[in-house]
Amino acid sequence: MPNPAEGDDADKQAFIDAMSSPISHVLDDPGALWDEFAISSQPSMVFVAADGSWERRTGALGNTRLLERVKAMAS
Known about the structure:
3 helices, 2 strands, alpha+beta
């Protein structure tokens, strides 16, 4: 799929519809978040705890490991 940032509103909505999931996705154009969190590939996730600390994970976690990580950060 082409970069949705380069398309019109219909292209952006098509991308959103195709990629819909319960996890929030952020359009990062021109890549400021990738730079800030040193993301070099997808899939990548950045977990931000209530105290502001964060942890970056690169690679797919799967539902079980994702839920475990979120629960650990919440406690």
